[in-house]
What does this fold into?
Amino acid sequence: MKLHNHWLNRERISNYPRIFLALFLVFGFVWVLMSKNMVDPKGGPLGYDFIAFWAASHLALAGHARDAFSIPQLFNTQQLAVPASTSVYAWFYPPAFYLVVLPLALLPYTAAYWVFMLSTLGTYILVLRRIVKGNTAMWCIAAFPGVWVNFLIGQNAFLTAALAAAALLSIERRALMSGLLIGLLAAIKPHLALLFPVALIAIGAWRTLLTAALTTLTITAIGTLTLGLAVLNGFLANLGYARQFLETGYIPWERIPSLFAFGRLIGIPVLWAYVIQFIVAVGAVAIVIYVWRRCQDLNLRGAILMTATFLVSPYVFDYDLAWLAFPIAWLALAGHHTVWLRGERELLVIAWLLPMLMIPIAETLNVQVGPFVLCGMLWMTFRRAKEAFVVRINSNSRQ
It folds into this structure.
């Protein structure tokens, strides 16, 4: 088949993102028009997860930071922002992230939402621009469903993804900066930083690992001293509730792209769902160790770590899939600079669409497809890394 007839040729690729972007803009506009009193058609506040950030900030500024971990207290505060909303949101964040959201309630809810989302989105795009440039790439980023899901939900995935990717981009030449960024990520969302110590130990990056550990401890200590020991105790105590909500489906499994959620959605008991999650997590850790030890390509190292993160923790969400922009970009560059391997472009397109299609598929078929797409991404990256390692060995043997 000739290239100009292929559904993924350059001309068509440049058009698809524009179409998706237009659809997202129309959807967002209609969604706001259908909302009344800042409450969307499903009954939640506009930018609905963000309301927990604003409420926690409001409580802390009033001198009651510990009350954010009380769902009734948090709900009462949320109604100050959107009185018509009856949806209930919880606060499960550590002291470090509490510091991040602390100033938000100095602004009205809507203004605070835009300041937080646009500032974190700007950081996210700045880091992406270090990887990809050009009009087509920017259109793909602007239309990436993961960006829109996180933006509409009002979550922090732009910030966490930017920290993770910037740390990976700095790890070779700026070891201390990389450690600082990893430490910040671990202090804000510990379960999304689980694989960084594994990767750093695999390559013997001890300075970066030590810097990351000290940064996490320091930022956590600052948050605890600023907000009070009760905030740290509240965070630790609420971990049990987060686990309970995950296991019982109080947090919809359709929104969670993990093997645990897949198992629970099809009726597997909690214990066996954890067993499945553990087996896959061990495999993902082994692949990360293999790639980081044997592959010198920093792009493939980054892609494997950010993808495997979703297969290690059972507690990941649809908005976290904003992370996928980075593995997709790194793998697209690998294909562009060398040759595309069989199935790569098709799988990247599926991964690009995943944040938009995952929930409708789960609601229709009662199957969580997210972890299978992520496993495909992991396999695809591993295949490239293994091939690069073989090529390097052959090249060294000829010398």
